[in-house]
Amino acid sequence: MNARAYLLLLVLSVVVAVPASPQAQGFAGLGTQAEGFAVPERGVPLAFPRDHGAHPDYRIEWWYLTANLKSADGRSFGLQWTLFRSALEPGGKDASQIWMGHAAATSAERHLVAERLARGGTGQAGVTLAPFSAWIDEWKMETRVGEEALAAGADPLSKLVLGASGTDFRYSMELEAKGPLVPQGDRGYSVKSAEGQASYYYSQPFYTISGTLVLPEGEVEVTGEAWLDREWSSQPLSAGQTGWDWFSLHLESGEKLMAFRLRGDAQGYMSGTWISADGRPTPLGPSDLVVTPLDTARVAGHVLPVRWRVEVPGHGVDVTTEALNDDAWMAVSFPYWEGPIRFSGSHEGQGYLEMTGYK
């Protein structure tokens, strides 16, 4: 058995740790029971820079960055850089952690994907705080804030370098935050179901990004805006929730919108955050949001809604999203759709859409 297959079996063991049908565990096992692991508690404040690092007492965690990019000649692109951590058992030991990386580069014609897997305790993957660095193999997300600025209290995530590669693409980027970190939900406590499942969740949605993207057709210099999500939990879904639709939207007015719809149980569950141009968050509940699938496409054998209407009546938002590339399928260990979108209507802008759990 090769190393990649062995690691994949370890990752899958997280999903089958509880003897239940896949439908009763949620997408990728995220609805399995959290016995023995730490669970999020309402009212616990986020603390930085501590919470930029790993939380090994929780079962699952991710560092998730997406970016909307343009070349000098006006072509649109997207990129994704994600590091997942999953614990095989409670206790927080390094050797019990499985790390998984996903990277993608998207154009109107192509969607290129790569995946990496690593076992904890080997140095192959991990996250450090001093200085901040998240990596798996040669893929990296690292601070480029100087030591003096860090000592004076600068956020390590305020300036980053980012890099990843696959067999047919690579990218090297620099990012700089132009606004504050944003707690999602109730000051970072993000409820995911009527039963009370929750995660700790915050974002940095104010990055400018620039760098070099290398595709099969050649090298291109790009600039744009990026969004980083940080989230950790031990049972972020209820057992009946089988997937989600997640939006991160950059409005041309400078405001931001995060919205998600969790599917599978009778009512589903919706939540989001309206973020002012200066970074002030306003939580949005199920009555504040309407997301409606419009047109579908068959992608990798799945019927997926690739065009959506998103409404936030309290903020005058009524927009229709369009995918840059309908075929933005992430053909990885737990497949899903993730790609750049544009939107128009009451507001103009761009962002990212993630969809999981579609058959």
From TrEMBL:
SUPFAM superfamilies xref list: AttH-like (SSF159245)
Annotated keywords: Signal
Residues in the signal sequence: 1-24
Short name of one Pfam family: Lipocalin_9
The UniProt record lists the keyword Signal: yes
InterPro entries, per database record: AttH-like_dom_sf, AttH_dom
Superkingdom of origin organism: Bacteria
Domain (AttH): residue spans on this chain: 60-234
Signal recorded as keyword: yes
PANTHER family: BLL1000 PROTEIN (PTHR38591:SF1), HYDROLASE (PTHR38591)
Protein name (database record): Iron ABC transporter permease
The organism of origin for this protein: Ciceribacter ferrooxidans
